[in-house]
Write a structure and sequence with these properties.
Largest sheet: 12 strands, mixed
Number of strands: 19
CATH architecture of the largest domain: 2-Layer Sandwich
Shape: elongated
Bound molecules: NADP nicotinamide-adenine-dinucleotide phosphate
Radius of gyration: 25 Å
Amino acid sequence: MATETLIPSSANRVLRVGILGFGTVGSGAYRMLKDNRDAIQRKVGFGMEVVRIGIRDIGKPRDLPSDLFTDDLESIVDDPSIDVILELIGGVDPAGRLVERALNNGKNVVTANKELMAKEGSRLVHLAKSKGLDLHYEAAVGGGIPIVQPLKHQLAGNDVLKMMGILNGTTNYILTKMSRENADFGDVLAEAQAKGYAESDPTNDIDGFDTTYKISILASIAFGKQVPVAGVYREGIRSITKEDIRYADVLGYVIKLLGIVEPLSADRLLVRVHPTLIPKGHQLASVSDVYNALWIHGDFVGDLMFSGRGAGSDPTASAVIGDLIDVGRNVAIGGQGSAIPWDMGIETEPIESLETEYYLRLRVKDKPKVLGQLAMIFGEFDVSLAAMEMRVVDAVAELGEIVFLTHKCNEGNFRKALAEVGKSDIVDRVCNWIRVEG
Ligand SMILES: NC(=O)c1ccc[n+]([C@@H]2O[C@H](COP(=O)([O-])OP(=O)(O)OC[C@H]3O[C@@H](n4cnc5c(N)ncnc54)[C@H](OP(=O)(O)O)[C@@H]3O)[C@@H](O)[C@H]2O)c1
């Protein structure tokens, strides 16, 4: 069987690596080990040998000796000579089963799998801990941006008071392009799909699932308890129009899909994913195209921002190999693994408990006293209007468009007010409403 020592050993120890998955991330991780072998060797001082690579389609042409590959992935996680498994397949099954089996067989694991960690992270990290093994997952959130390790270690002494992240490159690319080119969502999505920036089935990105997995992982690390995916409020970007982006711009804001976590008390979190207006002066506002970023406010560290490439073969490989080196260092000193477990479950609050400001776009009948009547309805629900833009959209039908920003108010109240406004005979249509942050 062909094996390749990618990092020559300067000591007797050679870390034997099995890779599950050889797609975008798996092939990038392999290439990084190969291209940077001398630099890594200098830094870590021990050898690394890729023993076997597991894939699904054994007939697919690959640039490496064919006997390195197998479609029998169990044989890799059962191989007693392998020290570390890189799980780079994705999805919950068979990836979760293989990770569990690898840990039960005494192997350290590095994964890039956000869905698996968001859904099964607590159980798997506990398993790793109980076996004295490592389970690292830096690449699962923010691709090449180091976020997971700083949250676990350097920032662990802080009370995290708020985190807001642009955690999905596809949606950030689409919103950036809609804004720059005054383009419609559908046209930009089609172009992103043609260029390979968006999947042919874009649901995972566009409807906020990907961001939900990532923010649930970050919240679980920051608060030490698994935040269930079902406890994250989720909205995607399909409803955002170029009109909303233009009004936001006039009012001094940009629109981003954010994952947001904030504690409402010691044991209750509000975790949400939705399009958000943020002021142009906020650090997150300038994070454009496919870039990702995480903004953190900690009680001692204050404001902090991490940004960089959130996906792609090379940046993600950088995070995977960083984790692999960490495992190797631990194995080299005969360490016990450094998995940091999350306890099961934390209460998450419903979105109706949110207190924030809102952007609201209404199509109204162009009648006298419209503004006064709207202010009165909102006032009945403790929602006060802060700023406004107005334009006539159809002079013949006497229709106008009004955009409001509210002062901070309760979401439950805001939704009740909207229901009343929608019934009013002065309102033709509630076009859109978006939460405001920052
Ligand atoms: N792509 C990114 O930029 C990125 C960024 C951060 C994190 N991630 C995460 O990294 C992981 C891998 O993503 P990717 O983009 O590299 O995926 P990918 O390009 O689709 O590659 C997946 C690999 O896994 C193999 N595979 C899939 N299902 C399998 C099965 N049932 N049995 C055996 N092998 C199977 C495929 O085999 P074949 O080669 O035979 O098809 C392929 O080699 C995912 O968890 C993803 O969320 C990706």
